[in-house]
Amino acid sequence: MAEKKIQWNKAQVKAIESRDGSVLVSAAAGSGKTAVLVERVIERICDEKNPCPADSLLVVTFTKAAAAEMKERINARLTELLQSDPGNRYLARQRMMLPASDICTIDSFCSKLVRANYDSVGITPDFRTLDDNEKNLLIKEAADKTLEELYEEGSKEFKSLTELLISGRTDDKLSEVIYKLYENACAYAFPKKWINSVVRLYNPSLLPQQTPWGQKILKDVIEQLRYCGETLGKCAIMLREEPRLEASYLPAVYSDSMYYKASYDAARRGDWNRVKTLIDGFKPERLGTAPRDFSDSPLKERVKSLRDNCKKIYASLQKEVCVTEDEFCEDTAALRDVIIKLFSAVMLFSRHYSELKEKQNAYDFSDISHMALALLVSRNDDDTVDRTELAKELSHKYTEILIDEYQDTNKAQDMLFRAISDNEENLFIVGDVKQSIYGFRLAMPEIFLQKRKHLPDFNGKNYPAKINLDENFRSRKEVTEYINYVFSRVMSEDSCGINYDDSESLKAGADYEKSAFPCAELHIVDKSKIDCEYLPEASHIADIINKMVAEKMPVKTKSGYRPVMYKDICILMRGLNKADDYFDALTKKNIPVYYQKKGGFFQNTEINVMLSFLEIIDNPLQDIPLLSVLVSPLYGFTPDDLAVIRTQKRSGYLFNAVSNSGLEKCRDFIKSLTEYREMSTTCSVSDLLRSIYERTAYPSIVMSLPDGDTRRLNLLLLLQYAEKYESNSDLGLSGFVRYLTRTRDSKSSIDSSTGVSEYADVVRIMTIHASKGLEFPVVILSDLARRFSNMDFLSSVLVHPQLGLGPVCVDTQRHIQYPTVARQAIERTLRREAKAEELRVLYVAMTRAKEKLVMVHTQANARSRVADLMAVSACPVLPEAVDEGKCMGDWIMLPLLQRSEAASLRELAGQNGAGRFYADETPWTVRVHDGLSFVTPQQRPDAAPVDAAPPKDELPVDFAALSYRYPYAGQTAFPAKLTATQLKGRALDEEISENTTLPPRLRSLYKPKFLAGETTLTGAERGTALHLVMQDLDFFCEASEQSVREQVEKLRAQRKLTDEQASAVDVRAIVRFLRSDLAARIRKNAQTVRREYRFSLLRPVRDFATLDADDAVLLQGVVDCFFEEDGELVVVDFKTDRIGRTQIEERAEHYRPQLEAYSMALMRVMGKKVREKVLYFFSVGEEKVL
């Protein structure tokens, strides 16, 4: 049966048939852009008036798979045309030329161009492209060399740089910042020009409002204050409904509004100091007392909530406008030399990295693209750019240049395309800025946005022009309407750089029969009453899938409708860190499910066995790899065999013991190993692996293990890696083994084989990024409560492509660091751009659905969260409310709360549902579920403990050990011995359960002695000296500096303090303590005072971690001081942290777990109740009672 001929719509016809100039096509999701591209290429090739041979077209895609698919489609169309006209030699020639035509990725095009002109860029034609693992290894090596040179140089500027960027025991952060700057520079056509432009911004003569940073902050202040003013205006209008409440609340609302207006006007004028003065001096009036009968008034609560939100926003502006104009200039002057040194380090890294790559004759994609660019353009002294003769030649060669996914290009790539074009008059650009989700690869969607913004709509004659493909041929009308409703309310130019108006909305063009099933569903799972993290959502998703399959929901195929199958369903997640929980929940409910685990290649037993085998073939004098091979299924040695071997020869290498053993197994093993070693000297590594596979039948052996297909494919994947390595290297087995071990030890990510066919009937779990370009009949969006990450904004130095570098400023004299205007501006910009990209990621996720879109959002404290969202919910949602969203679920609920179908959500928030809510002809399904309904009775909070089920019979020992999983893996991550000090400031339960470390806090920095070049004590060492004094201090001595100095001198004479420690003791701080109320209480109860009290006791591990185990932990510690008062204990801990008075509360919380550990220990040991826990901070002379 012949395939139905495509009926193109008007916009598609324009995109296919436009000929006389450049065209930009903005192609929405599901609009058939690939089909349009293919048809345009065919039309250009077959154009009777002006035919374009296949070799005169350049078609650029951004993935190899997309390029291969496009070639396949074009080949199929040419074949179809040849069947209609078999004698057409021109078409036959075009089909023959197609494999060699320039339908490729941008990387392939640049590589081909450089290889053809290798002599012009000074390299050899046999260069190769680095893979990611090799690249990471070279980056590490280049960074180490760079830092080694800088440490050896020991300049003053580098010392300042280390103070800025080195915290803890490693300098990894410094290496990371250097590479990040290098990477950002490479996103531009001329990296050195970008570096110079960033350095120029650190000019002490510039005022903040004259820099991009200050201008960005003032713009943000204006936007935030405009929002606050509009919000308070709405509050004033709402208060008119209740005159008595208005009389109490309006004066404060009006006062705030006037203050915001003054700040707004100053920001508009660019008066930086005035803005700072107003923000710093803001003291909001208190709201008047509301009448008693308004105690439960929703209006009162809404006005208070909106005003509090405005106050919070206004207070946050104080962090952005953080310095005066004079202070800004001082900071810039202080940082200038450090910034120059940092960029000189970047250039040094670039040199070392280039040398390492040249040595291996291998380059990364950025190198190759810059080499290609150097072949095409030259930069003049006045920063103008001229095209080379080669560029002009290529511009004549290519009749047209067609580029897909243009929203993901960067500046360097954009210049390259313009250079090879015919004065930018033969470009056909396709993209969709709403699907630009590769910011982490330095994609710059603003390039596409700017081009589109300045182009008129295409009328058939005007060039250059833009064409909008907005008809969606993928999804049901109900799905597209849901998507349009959400994004027309939350996606705006302020929040995302693009207004989701009628020109951007999806127009349903797919032909579906009317469905009896709901096509758009939102499920809110309230887990307020349960502690388990992911089980309710995963279990509910399993129920949804089982219900769809049981009810035989119809889905459309090319041949008609059929009942839904598991393979029609895809669960999309932002990341796969929780995928195991979903996998287990679906498996328990008999749903076949699969997801591709990231990395893990070297965690597979079969790979470790083969790597060990290759290691001993290369060098058999390695006991651990040899032992691994002997006990593997390859040779099947038992523990008894090994005991006999070692008994015969107790010392020396294991290989020598095996060689001298009389066991037949040993003789067979030595014989085969000798043969493999001889073979390794004459054949390739891939041939050696094939021989091992054939002679040992290892691929067949692993097939008998659990996940046998995947294990066998992993072995074949190892063979592919060997072939790939050999194509780029001639170092043989030793080189390959070294490459694998370095990759493994560097913890580089290599994915295991999938082991699942594309057509397998399984539910797939994948990331949203992995789903881009795909479509599924049923899409389930999960983990919508996942909070947006803040990890990228915690570094002491932030980098932005346009705004450059944003460091903190370090005051080594006062041991503090504080943010600069540059850092505040860049952090704010990065946060907004990250939120904008998250919004586009959500768009990509929702547009993958063809027939049914299910969203599942699990919310802790659902009632309060929905109430908070109700306060700012609107149609459209204000950009500031979008910006305040904490997760994707918030963005979905904000506009949804304005619909009539969300009554259950409003009721959950305690709203009466009164008001006017949006409704249309496409009803949505919104359900709220109690998380308790998805857990078993044993998993409920009040469940009684249940005895563990008896263990089932295990598999024979032959192969089970290879797939064995240690059942107490959680306990291995927790120490058997714990000190109380380790508990301070750590969210321990969270850290252990997530197996991640918390982000580093900003803290006082110090110079290592070897770097400082002096012997003065560090802050920590001075604190130790003070603690030593407090161990022996006479609390009854006179509270004077002279008296305290005498005691310190006495301790020095007794050699309890060194000379350096004695001179470093803060005598005034001790005097201040002796005059404190706490010292008076200690003196009053002097008979019961104990100092430096050491303790050790066993406590259940459950006291410190969320582990289901009966193990005990040895808790040890030293209590600075405690005494008895009125029959109860008072615990005192002395702290020497350098803090201000405003930081006392924060530091007290930081130390709370330590004090609680002391109290628990003393109650157990002394048998008395602890009435009070006291922290005394010497730097401020104040105590804090916990």
Report on the architecture of this protein:
This protein has about 1200 residues and is an alpha/beta fold. The strands form 8 sheets. The chain has a 7-stranded parallel sheet. The chain has a 6-stranded parallel sheet with strand order 3-2-8-9-1-10, sandwiched between helices. Strands 25, 26, 27, 28, 29 and 30 form a 6-stranded mixed sheet that branches. A hairpin with a 5-residue loop joins strand 6 and strand 7. Helix 8 crosses helix 15 (about 325-360), helix 16 (about 365-375) runs parallel beside helix 18 (about 410-420) and helix 29 (about 685-695) runs antiparallel to helix 31. Mean pLDDT is about 85; it is low at about 985-1015.
Secondary structure elements and pairings:
Elements: H1 10-17, E1 23-27, H2 33-45, E2 57-61, H3 64-84, H4 89-97, E3 102-105, H5 106-116, H6 118-121, E4 128-129, H7 132-153, H8 156-165, H9 172-186, H10 191-200, H11 212-239, H12 243-269, H13 272-280, H14 298-320, H15 325-360, E5 362-363, H16 365-376, E6 377-379, E7 385-387, H17 389-397, E8 400-403, H18 411-420, E9 427-431, H19 445-453, E10 465-469, E11 471-472, H20 477-490, H21 493-496, E12 507-508, E13 520-526, H22 535-550, E14 554-557, E15 560-563, E16 569-573, H23 579-588, E17 593-594, H24 605-618, H25 623-631, H26 639-648, H27 654-660, H28 664-680, H29 685-696, H30 698-703, H31 708-728, H32 732-745, E18 763-767, H33 768-771, E19 776-781, E20 797-800, E21 804-811, E22 816-819, H34 821-846, E23 849-859, H35 862-872, H36 879-883, H37 888-896, H38 903-908, E24 925-930, H39 957-960, H40 969-972, E25 977-979, H41 988-994, H42 1009-1012, H43 1019-1032, H44 1041-1053, H45 1059-1064, H46 1067-1074, H47 1077-1084, E26 1090-1100, E27 1112-1125, E28 1128-1135, H48 1144-1166, E29 1170-1177, E30 1182-1185
Parallel strand pairs: 1-9, 1-10, 2-3, 2-8, 4-5, 8-9, 11-12, 13-23, 13-24, 16-18, 16-19, 17-18, 19-23, 25-27, 28-29
Antiparallel strand pairs: 6-7, 14-15, 20-21, 21-22, 26-27, 27-28, 29-30
Helix pairs in contact: 1-2, 2-3, 3-4, 5-16, 7-15, 8-15, 9-10, 9-15, 11-12, 11-14, 11-34, 12-13, 16-18, 20-37, 22-23, 24-25, 24-32, 29-31
